[in-house]
Structure formats: C-alpha cells, structure tokens
Design brief:
Length: 192
C-alpha cells in the first residue's frame, strides 16, 4: 500500500471547488483537470509557525522578485525556487510555494504554481504535497512549445524515504482563453 502523508486524504481549496483526493487517487486514475478559471490563488495555511518564522528558521528569504513570487507571499505561502532553479519562459513562470517545512527545512505542505502573464493558471498537483512521500513532485520542465512535464515519486510501504519504487511523468498544456490561461494535465506515463 502507498505510504506517507499523501496516502491520507488531503484537501486544498482551488477556486470554487474543494478537492479531496489522495496521491494514489489522482496519479492512478485517468487525468481530469482541477484547474478551472476563474480561480483565486489558494491561501497557504501554516499549522504551526508563521511563514516568516519558517523563513528565519530555515534561513530562507521570502522571495518577491517576480509578480508570481509576490502573489504567493501575499497569500500566505513561502515562495521558493523548485529544485533550486527559476523556471521562466516568455510570460510563463513556475514557482514553488510552501506553507510548512520539516525539521530539515524540506517542504511538507507545498505545491508548484504556474503563472501566465503574472496571473495564476493553476497548480501541477490537485493537492498539497510533502517531500519524500508518495505523489511528491520532482523535476519540472517547461518546453519551448509551452508544454510542461513534471515527475512524481511513487512510494510503496517497503521503500526507503530516499528511494521511491517508481516515478511517473505528467504532461500539461497551457490553454490560453482570452485573458485567462489554464494548466491542463494531458497525459501520464510511468518512467520506472
């Protein structure tokens, strides 16, 4: 059976819908879109310390260098460079946002947000993730044609926290609908 916090039911407010799923659910079923415009940026909901306290403890600065980082910070998230790099191409920016971190400062309540023209186009997961658990996101790539791919870890009960049994890749396209853009998942593929 799948292990970790993501195997339990998680909730995340996305626009007008409350999504309740497990990592096992969304990665093991046919993909459906959870990003529907118009949607407000969900609020980060830290359970223990504030985002400012977490930034101090983890020796992180609250990033506000781009409109996307500023929007996340203004909505209770600690913006961070996912996999330690800025992902920007044209008017598309992909940035991580965490609401909590563990004792080693790994994100434990986080998502990866896609902004187009400075406006939220969606998230790469329909729910909050936690590092080193089933369904946690790894590498994210933004292709020249505007498509996005993201790898997600798949853990089994027997797996060590460092080493998921497998990974899957989810591909997304950005649909531009007038002044609104939306990130739509289009395919999922097992990598190993």
């Amino acid at each position: 059976m799948i292990r970790g916090a993501m195997a339990t039911v998680c909730t995340l407010w996305l626009g007008a819908a409350l999504v309740a799923q497990s990592a096992e659910g969304w990665l093991d079923r046919p993909l459906t879109s959870w990003n529907e415009p118009p949607r407000p940026l969900p609020r980060g909901m830290p359970a223990g310390e504030t985002v400012t306290e977490m930034a101090i403890r983890c020796d992180l600065r609250i990033r506000r260098g781009t409109p996307a980082e500023g929007a996340l910070a203004d909505n209770g998230w600690l913006p961070y460079l996912h996999v330690d790099r800025q992902i920007v191409q044209g008017d598309v920016e992909i940035v991580g946002g965490m609401a909590e971190a563990d004792g080693m400062c790994r994100p434990t309540e986080f998502n990866v947000f896609v902004f187009v023209g400075g406006r939220l186009a969606g998230t790469l997961s329909p729910l909050l993730m936690s590092s080193r658990t089933d369904g946690s996101i790894g590498a994210v790539r933004l292709a020249a044609d505007g498509t996005i791919s993201a790898e997600f870890a798949r853990f089994l009960d027997k797996d060590a926290l460092c080493c998921p049994s497998s990974r899957v890749s989810v591909r997304y396209r950005i649909e531009r609908r007038g002044s609104e853009s939306v990130v739509v998942p289009v395919s999922i593929q097992a990598l190993r």
